[in-house]
Specification:
With 340 residues, the protein is mainly beta. The chain is 11% helix and 49% strand. It is built from two helices and 28 strands. The strands form six sheets. Strands 2-3-4-5-1-28-27-26 form an eight-stranded mixed β-sheet. Strands 6-7-8-9 form a four-stranded antiparallel β-sheet, with no helix packed on it. It has a four-stranded antiparallel β-sheet with strand order 10-11-12-13, with no helix packed on it. Strand 20 and strand 21 form a beta hairpin. The radius of gyration is 27 Å and the shape is elongated. The mean pLDDT is 91.
């Protein structure tokens, strides 16, 4: 019995020493992945305005400038690239492209003769009758609405389905799948064009509009102005709440919904509205080649394309651990900074 007590006492002493040793050990950090945002910048030396940016299903990026189509070249994180002329399709050289969009994840173009594309074996070529055409929007069935700023032509496969005129200067058009309507933003009005009825209907009057897009699965429209933004319900066609001016920069130049996130472009950078009502603000040369944003689009590889007057900023969102981040910088240092 005495021996048994001795064994129990010995076990208790050893257990206490072991627990104290564990308690004195430093805590081990678990290197879990987090979402890291970083930017790759592409500058331009040309003085021509940069108008639109888009990406296709193959990961190609095209930028529409006043002098033609450009594409990014040779850019990496902390190593800026450039925008160079896109000569992928030689027959495009003589065309005066006035608008660009991504339709069904393929590039579609507008010039003074037609809506056309190099995708789908080049079969898409819908002629229109507007010599000064500069805007268009695409429906899922390849019905297009083309405008020169006031006149509107709805067409499918070169067949004109209807025409209309807007008293307001048109600055942007988008297609809503939910109601089969083209939504048309003017400088002072928001209107809808019915494909079925071939009718233009004004639904809201305001002032100083600059851009708009759908969000909340097409149930709402967000309208950017020169002093904040408005939210409109697509069902009731009424404004929800008041003008929101509490922004990093209230002078909005473009609005885009990307992966259920609302992005704003302004004269002082771009910002994304978070779920908590705050903003992720991307400003300065850490993120963008210039601060005056002209267009925003969804990019390849979980990125957002922010076009400015001085070039293109491609903001990536990548899941990585601290070790991954450290190894990235170590690799870059070895490739670019080790000498002799």
């Amino acid at each position: 019995m005495k021996r048994l007590y001795q064994l129990i006492l010995l076990f208790f002493i050893c257990s206490t020493v072991h627990n104290r040793a564990l308690a004195n050990q430093p805590a081990v950090h678990r290197d879990t992945p987090f979402l890291q945002d970083y930017s790759v910048k592409y500058y331009t030396n040309a003085s021509d305005p940069l108008l639109k940016v888009a990406a296709d299903r193959n990961g190609n990026i095209q930028v529409l400038s006043a002098s033609g189509l450009l594409k990014p070249f040779d850019g990496e994180f902390l190593y800026p690239g450039t925008l160079v002329p896109d000569v992928s399709y030689r027959p495009m050289a003589g065309k005066k492209v006035t608008d660009l969009c991504s339709c069904n994840e393929q590039f579609v173009f507008l010039d003074n003769k037609a809506v056309f594309s190099n995708a789908w074996a080049g079969k898409l070529f819908a002629r229109h009758s507007l010599d000064q055409a500069r805007l268009f929007a695409c429906a899922t069935d390849f019905t297009f609405l083309v405008s020169d700023g006031h006149r509107l032509v709805c067409l499918n496969d070169s067949k004109v389905l209807g025409e209309s005129n807007s008293s307001d200067e048109i600055i942007q058009m988008r297609y809503s799948v939910n109601k089969a309507l083209f939504w048309i933003l003017g400088k002072k009005t928001l209107s809808v064009y019915s494909v079925k009825e071939q009718k233009l209907t004004r639904i809201y009057d305001g002032k100083d509009f600059t851009s708009f897009d759908f969000f909340d699965q097409g149930k709402k429209v967000i309208i950017g102005t020169t002093n904040g933004y408005l939210v409109l319900d697509t069902q009731s066609q009424k404004i929800l709440g008041e003008l929101n001016t509490k922004l990093p920069c209230p002078e909005i130049t473009c609005v885009k919904e990307i992966d259920n996130e609302i992005w704003f472009g302004s004269n002082f950078g771009a910002f994304m509205l978070r779920r908590d009502g705050k903003f992720n603000y991307y400003n300065g040369e850490r993120w963008l080649p210039g601060n005056k944003v002209t267009d925003i689009a969804k990019g390849p590889d979980h990125s957002v394309l922010v076009l400015t007057e001085k070039g293109l900023g491609q903001i990536f969102f990548k899941a990585m651990t601290l070790e991954d981040k450290a190894l990235y910088f170590e690799t870059q240092v070895r490739q670019r900074h080790i000498r002799n």
